[in-house]
Amino acid sequence: MPERTQAVIVGAAETPYSRHPPEGTTTESVLADAFLRVLEATGVRREEVDGLGVASFTLKPDRAIDLAWKLGVRPRWLMDDGNGGVSGIQMIQHAMRALDAGDATTVVLVSGDHFTRDDFKTLVDEYNQTTARYLARIPHGGPNALFAMLTRRQMEEHGLGRADYGRLAVAQRRWASMNPNAAFRTPLTIDEYLNAPPVVEPLHRLDCVPVVTGADALVLRVEGPGVRIRALRALHNVDGQEGTGLRTGIADIADELWRDADAGPADMDVISVYDDYPAMAVAQLNDLGFVGDGDLGGFLRRVDDERLPVNTSGGQLSAGQAGTAGGMIGLVESVLQLQGRAGERQIEEARLAVATGYGMVLYRYGACANAIVLERP
Amino acid sequence: MSARIFVCESCGRAVFPHRLLCPECGGAAFRDEPVESGTLEDFADRGEVRIGVVRVAAGPLLIARIEGPPQRGATVALDEDGAVPVARA
To answer: Rounded to two decimals, what is the model's pTM?
Structure first.
């Protein structure tokens, strides 16, 4: 078992997520906004920040050091992370060890993106060399078609219909209605979900995350009151892209994660899974052991009917996908819930939270996966 | 008319797309091998373009542009457009 870190997460912040950000918004301006918000939320002074980690698709050609310079931070520990949906947990995996080792005392991690139309097309067509060479020239039109195929397979294997996935979309929108930062807050009916225009069958519009501008940030410190990290595990490239794609690396680390955390799925008060598509959210919930008997449809009905605390910020499906901030949205929500700062959507007496990261579609599906268990101060 | 896969010179393991080292034995040398047909396992209809996953007998899964009406489980003929596999249903 890896040694449990002494580092704590002292606070979290998020900018509003917006489909139509104000004129003049840039990736660096929205990252700076999140940076200022997390200092405000934690009372940490800029001069105290001696570690900086940055995850962004659209900051390039700038890197973490450019942001440090422009923010006036002098880091002793500096990290760029380009790994999308796993970047948030991944930066914590590195930062907590740096704090334990004494490389830094106060680390800010920030993730976010602002896409122009051209930025987004470039990201989709040139996501990696394999995509540029083998997929963009089909043309595959981005990941929707790949996840449409995965979703259809999951539907067949588990006897699911569109209405089952709609349960998750409706439930997450209910949470989003209580999150002032979410891009979509108007409650959703199952009929609205089912009647949304098709994108690539069986995916319709409300199965695909809306691209937004926004950023998230966390502060980790070497000690002091803060959210404790009970366990963190990662496993990437679990099957060389040669599996079904419906079993993520989380399935292989779940037992270790729960053992390290000295807790199990039933103990979790807040659950945040990476929801780029409903099928992948369900796959991760299953991999973590929340479904138990493998009845995904029954579990989805419980998420909705019993108001299970899954993606209580509204997740990316309703709050929006602010690029790499999608790798931090669940972490920020977990920290806010455990600190009792989640406003109208606060889960009473929230003590333990689990969050996952997933992503980096190399060819057929996401290759990266990680998960973290957090405990209130 | 064929698409291609990559076969490890050391152990014969086939991959697609290309890798730097063989996932099986770690060998670094691959040869191109033509594949003329496969089985259409999945497809998605994007309107003007259909894409599908084709499994070839040697094992690898190829994501291909589909020409003609797709049917899951059907045998498709494989071709190439540049590096992109094309499946003719």
So the answer is: 0.97
